[in-house]
Amino acid sequence: ATLTRREFHGCSSCFEVDRVTDTALRLPLLSPAAQFDPQLREQEEAAPISLQELLDASQQPETIEGYDCDACRARSAAEGTEHVRTSVTQHGNVIAETR
Question: The organism sits in which domain of life (predicted)?
């Protein structure tokens, strides 16, 4: 199974989303930029890439700014302070278990 894990910078909580039990790992063969740039796409399609490079690219953490965290919102309400959106680090394609 694979999953996406989100770590909230404001409250330091962490939770899992998008758990998928599948017989295949979905790995992008092109970078996100190459999907929209024909010249970069041609360059990437011509270059060899290893399985390890594909795994590493799919598991790169991504920082999302301005995320609305439910735990931060609840804490702000309990403390009577203004809720502020925070950033979150998202880790995709985390391998959770194998059988």
Answer: Eukaryota
